[in-house]
Specification:
The complex is a heterodimer. Chain A is an all-beta fold. Chain A has three domains: 2-62, SH3 type barrels (Roll); 65-124, Nucleic acid-binding proteins (OB fold (Dihydrolipoamide Acetyltransferase, E2P), Beta Barrel), CATH 2.40.50; 128-185, OB fold (Dihydrolipoamide Acetyltransferase, E2P). Chain A is built from one helix and 16 strands. Chain B has an eight-stranded mixed β-sheet with strand order 1-5-6-13-12-11-10-9, sandwiched between helices. A three-stranded antiparallel β-sheet of chain B has the order 2-4-3, with no helix packed on it. Chain B is 33% helix and 25% strand. Chains A and B meet through strand 3 of A and helix 6 of B.
């Protein structure tokens, strides 16, 4: 159990059966009165946010969250299948829960899957991934204007802006957090 | 700033005192948790020892010292902070408000800040006199419910902190006074209206800076209030804090007096237009 004095930004607690993360926190203590802990909370399943004030006497259950490294296997009817590489147990994660990570998921790559009481909540990829460009307009020789960007499609179907010298078949590194091109990768 | 504070009191014939930071029994208060130090405690405020000095016959005393309160950490709270306390025999809380006003104005002048400070891009005027507002009127003006109703729902602090406080003293300092008796552990009842305590708080820019009151000098009533607080703490944590017996004995000889505690770090925040207390101290606890 947590007490109110454990509350801080980033702490994950369980309220009414749902996991919440504290996104904003302030300690307030008017005069000689009791301490108040004003928190902004985000539901980790629905994403909905609300503000609540707690007191010193309030107690909280920690949200039972676990992170597992899992291998992405395949997608079927909008569900993404991940496998625990030690137990070979498989789980399905919805498209919403996968979120932006779906743009960079290649079969057999490893990702971190966040669980709340054995229910998957989300997927986190390494900060960058290397993907092969599958479709790109050819580089027109003589186009030397620096800073020129063009859209290309990578093997996951994701479209990203890259410098004009990138050609089909090349491997590029993409930042999974911003979704932006980082650099060309030479094998 | 510390020098300017000292100068003000020395010019007014106050005696600077030092009292021990480690004490066997702080004032039992429901909402202040002292930091244990061996079998004793680090003082959450020097008030009990200073009042014993008053009782021993010193008429005007002040102290600037470090105080300690467990679990207090926020934008305006440090678990160890600097407190200025002063006590004066023979004055009531209204006269103490006058002196508090004179002190802050004198320090601002000493520091060359003039009569108008800047607070979040807006002028903040120190020119006297500062408005004085009772808790009842403040709730009537700014809160969704009356202080009595808030007390009944046990939401007094919440309503005060979130509905009233942010609107207090925004353009000029303000004294909030006449607190419900339930919120004044060591203050005496107002002689004109015994339902409220002769206690006040100084607000500057929506922030509480000082808590002052006319001292309760009745040892029987004081023991009753301490016992109430001790019982409440016992209910919550299992053991009652010790009773400050020597202080209660000294109270029998305590003259009519008023005293006040002012957060020196917060005064620095006002002068520096700082948004958090971290900006005015070199070492917040997290970087020690």
């Amino acid at each position: 159990m947590y007490t109110a004095s454990d509350l801080r930004k980033g702490l994950r607690i369980k309220i009414d059966g749902d996991p919440y993360v504290i996104t904003e926190f302030n300690f307030v203590k008017p005069g000689k009165g009791q301490a108040l802990y004003r928190c902004k909370l985000k539901n980790m399943i629905t994403g909905s946010q609300f503000e609540r004030t707690f007191r010193s006497v309030d107690m909280f259950d920690p949200a039972d969250l676990q992170v597992k490294t899992m291998q992405y296997l395949y997608m079927e009817e909008g569900k993404y299948c991940f496998m625990d590489t030690t137990t070979f147990e498989q789980v399905f994660v919805t498209e919403d829960q996968v979120g932006e990570a779906k743009n960079f998921l290649l079969e057999n790559v490893e990702a971190e899957v966040l669980f709340f009481e054995d229910r998957p909540l989300g997927v986190t990829l390494p900060n960058s991934v290397d993907l092969v460009v599958t479709k790109a307009d050819p580089w027109i020789k003589g186009d030397t204007v620096s800073g020129n960007a063009k859209p290309v499609t990578v093997e996951t179907g994701y479209v990203v802006l890259v410098p004009s010298f990138i050609e089909e078949g090349e491997k590029i590194r993409i930042d999974t957090r911003s979704g932006e091109y980082l650099t060309r990768v030479k094998d | 700033m510390i020098e300017a504070l000292r100068r003000f009191f020395l010019e007014r014939d106050y005696l600077e005192v030092e009292t021990p930071a480690r004490i066997p029994a702080p004032a039992p208060e429901t909402h202040i948790e002292p930091v244990p130090s061996g079998d004793w405690f680090l003082h959450p405020s020097p008030e009990l020892c200073m009042k014993r000095l008053l009782a021993a016959g010193y008429p005007r005393i002040f102290q600037i010292c470090r105080c300690f309160r467990a679990g207090e950490r926020g934008d305006r709270h440090l678990p160890e902070f600097t407190m200025l306390e002063w006590y004066r025999r023979g004055i009531d809380s209204r006269e103490l408000m006058d002196e508090c006003e004179a002190l802050v104005r004198s320090v601002a002048e000493d520091l060359g800040m003039g009569d108008v400070l800047s607070c979040r891009g807006k002028p903040f005027r120190l020119s006297a006199p500062w408005p004085r507002l009772s808790v009842r009127d403040a709730f009537a003006a700014h809160a969704s419910i009356s202080p009595e109703e808030a007390l009944r729902q046990e939401r007094f602090e919440e309503v005060l902190a979130f509905e009233v406080e942010p609107l207090l003293g925004r353009e000029t300092p303000l004294f909030l006074h006449s607190y419900p008796m339930a919120h004044a552990s060591l203050a005496r009842a107002d002689r004109d209206d015994p339902s409220v305590a002769e206690r006040f708080e100084l607000y500057m820019a929506g922030m509480e800076l000082a808590n002052g009151f006319a001292e309760l000098t009745d040892p029987v009533e004081q023991r009753r209030r301490f016992d109430e607080a001790r019982a409440e703490v016992e209910r919550r944590v299992g053991t009652a804090p010790p009773q400050p017996e020597r202080f209660l004995r000294a109270l029998e000889r305590m003259p009519e007096a008023s005293g006040i505690a002012l957060g020196v770090d917060r005064l620095a925040m006002v002068f520096c237009d700082a948004a958090t207390i971290d900006e005015v101290v070199a070492f917040p606890p997290e970087i020690l």
